Amino acid sequence: PSRYLPAVSRSLVVRQATPTETSVVDAKTTSLRIDYVFSSKLSANIGFNRQLNFGSGSVTNSDSKDTTIGGVYRFSDNLSFFAQYAEQWLTFLDSSDNSHSKITMFGVQLGRPDKVNLNVDFQRLLTFTNEGSSYVGGVGGFMEQQLDSWSARLNYPLSQKYTLFTEFFQATTAGSDVDANNRRRDLALGLDYTINRYFTLTTRWTKQ
């Protein structure tokens, strides 16, 4: 099988927002991403991102770090599987508040994009929040929340430009905040119009 050298990108971006009457923002971002193609069937990626936000007025100083790892395996032209795992650490520098999130995603695609195809995806988001004594509006404490969502979308290409689709989505939230626990279901029917490789116009009808 053919192999490719990993593609590595590293950037440091400093952005200074235009001062307003209430706040000034200075954000510094450092990111690193590596993509590697092992073969025509298997590819993988790993990434790291850090963003520091400093400011005045209504701006909250914070330090955010993200790491991701994932990959795609193509069993055939009609079957592929992807998986992605990410973690985020967010610390508020002006207080003892912080949060830690874990995101797991995986999905399966059945069928070729130019034929009738089915996409099934699942995502789990776990968030652990520590609200210190300086938390605005509360007395602090530890909170945990879990969000599970999955979707299934069936695509039926009518032509190169038009694709008819139907989609089902369900999300369930559970955690320390009982009042926020809920379940949502959506059923949609729609039509995609591909303008070009960058733009698609979508019309849909949704029932919740």
Could you describe the 3D structure shown?
It contains no helices and eleven strands. The chain is an all-beta fold and 208 residues long. Strands 1-2-3-4-5-6-7-8-9-10-11 form an eleven-stranded antiparallel β-sheet, with no helix packed on it. A hairpin with a 4-residue loop joins strand 2 and strand 3. The N terminus is likely disordered.
Number of strands: 11
Largest sheet properties: 11 strands, antiparallel
Mean pLDDT: 83
Oligomer: single chain
**End-to-end CA span:** 47 Å
Shape, per Cα inertia axes: globular
Structure characteristics:
208 residues; mainly beta
Short description:
The chain has an eleven-stranded antiparallel sheet, with no helix packed on it.
How would you summarize the topology of this molecule?
Blueprint: E1 7-16, E2 24-37, E3 42-56, E4 62-76, E5 79-92, E6 98-110, E7 117-131, E8 141-157, E9 162-175, E10 182-194, E11 200-207
